[in-house]
Fold:
Amino acid sequence: MYIIKILFAVIIISSIMLPQQNEKTYSISTELGVGYSRYFTTMDYDDLNQNGFSGTVRVMWNPEHLLSLGLESGYQYLYSIDVSNYDTEFGTTDFSASMYNIPVFAVFSMKVLPNLRLNAGAGMYLLFNSGNLFGDALESNQISIGAHTGVSYLYPISSSVSIGGELLYSYFSKLQDQTVALQFLFVYDLFRY
Structure:
């Protein structure tokens, strides 16, 4: 009988004396990423510039569990080329071309460690091509199904702001080409509920 009273007293005292844990909350956050990307392609031109700028905008829903869901868009410069005296069957000309894309993705993110996340997304890429051949401007737009996967590290600055970096691999099915991007990330929790 005394043991039950002592256990009951210990439970009551510990619940009063020990700090209560905060309830976990849901949040909506926005992520902004900027950085460098490298385009990997089967095109074989000496003057092909495969280095470019990468920018990402994500809106994520972060529930209490480890998996977050969201939408992503952005901008990625894929390549540019500028060739003088390019020989064709129609004669010699100056040739220039460039391509960039805008992704429209559903994305998923999972925390594997407190500050480390694995990211994946799938959707479509809007591909924008422009160029100049024989003095005529050329423009074409395409849609390609694609996907990306990556890993990011975020360091919390405050309860609503984090900064970090992300390594991102992307694949374009229409072109059968890839990019690798290294980005600086800024994450801000818009609101919690």
Q: What stands out?
A: The chain has one domain: 23-192.
